[in-house]
Amino acid sequence: MDQVDELVTRAAADDEHAWSLLVDRFSGLVWSVARSVGLDDADAADVSQTTWMRLAEHLDQLNDTSRVGAWLATTARREAIRVSRLGVRHVPVDPWQWLDRPDDAVDDPELAVLATERELAVQMAVALLPDRCRRMLIALSADPPASYTDLSSNLGVPMGSIGPTRSRCLQRLERLLREGQQQDTVTERMQ
Amino acid sequence: MTDSFWSGEESLLAEAVAVLRRAEPVPAAVTSAARTAFGWRSVVAAVADLEFDSAVDDDDLARVRAGVAERRLRFRAPSGTAELTVIDAGRRLAGRFDPVIAGAVLLRHPGRADVTRPIDALGQFYFEELPRGAVSIRAVPSDPEVPGFQTEWVTV
């Protein structure tokens, strides 16, 4: 199942697996957008939750299902801005204890390196790639990067086709970034 | 293929790899909450949109007057509005339906069971110990002929 619009249509028709694949693709983008506004982990977690609850509610009403990534990014950005303006917020009755994260993550948003618009645009374009291309890029960005042998077996592509596949994927990525620029952004300029 | 094509492709790959490496891993509980959201798909046809939020729609002066601990929200549906005031830095919530709906009101939160409260004769209701995170309010009219009312999700 490659196309994002198809995933949205299937999720709207009650296909939970399709929903899960949407979460796999876009949860990183939603998280990065929330954090890019400067929210700490707990606030970014709340914003992420609200964003996905809203999508679940709006699945049947999206005007353009292929733009679900932009819809999520816009919703997350708006919600993150609201939360960032609340000032003193919540002395929680039920402390937010369930976040598990690597020990080296940064708690202070001032110290965290916030994602730029360009980085968000690249993340969005990667999320919109066909599944094979997306998996290939993720494998190549592992440290150390996946070898051609690994790529061949993980993606089910013959060794001889890895080079051309990689090239086609990068062309698609480039096209998605260009299209995103024409639509003037990841988050549809709301400020 | 020209050299510039190749170098463009390689530099795009390098950029994508750098972005993916720098992107923070999403906490597992956050992804899990996103998956769970699917189970909360609405049963109500028309969800009331958030049309006013003092956190972003008030100017700075009005926000100072109201105090940082109070936040006012207004949701609108074809059948009417719901006005909510979140007080005590998000710990309590007071609300009012206009027109008045006779019945009960539910506070919905993905992390716990719905909490039910009565709606008084003036359309008002009240919740304490508001959980943080995504919440939504749903009116359950006692007369099944009266349209229900449900707000979209908002972070409190």
The radius of gyration of chain A is 18 Å
Write down the secondary-structure element order of chain A. HHHHHHHH
- Report Rg of chain B: 22 Å
Largest sheet of chain A: none
For the sheet with most strands of chain B, the description reads: 5 strands, antiparallel
How much helical structure, as a percent, in the residues of chain A? 55-70%
Q: What oligomeric state do these chains adopt?
A: heterodimer
Question: Overview of this structure, please?
Answer:
- The complex is a heterodimer of chains A (191) and B (156).
- Chain A is globular and about 55 Å long.
- By secondary structure, chain A is an all-alpha fold.
- Chain A contains eight helices and no strands.
- In chain A, helix 2 packs across helix 3, helix 2 packs across helix 4 and helix 5 crosses helix 8.
- By secondary structure, chain B is an alpha+beta fold.
- Helix content of chain B is 26%, strand content 37%.
- In chain B, the strands form two sheets. A five-stranded antiparallel sheet of chain B has the order 1-2-3-4-7.
- In chain B, a hairpin with a 2-residue loop joins strand 5 and strand 6.
- The model of chain B has no long low-confidence stretch (mean pLDDT 89).
Topology summary:
The complex is a heterodimer of chains A (191) and B (156).
Chain A: H1 4-12, H2 16-36, H3 41-58, H4 68-84, H5 117-128, H6 131-140, H7 148-155, H8 159-182
Helix pairs in contact in A: 1-2, 2-3, 2-4, 2-5, 3-4, 5-8, 6-8
Chain B: H1 3-22, H2 28-36, E1 49-53, H3 54-57, H4 60-66, E2 71-77, E3 80-87, E4 92-98, E5 103-109, E6 112-118, E7 124-127, E8 134-141, E9 149-150, E10 154-155
Antiparallel strand pairs in B: 1-2, 2-3, 3-4, 4-7, 5-6, 5-8, 8-9, 8-10
Please supply descriptive tags for the structure shown above.
heterodimer, A: 191 residues, 8 helices, B: 156 residues, alpha+beta, five-stranded antiparallel β-sheet, 10 strands, 26% helix
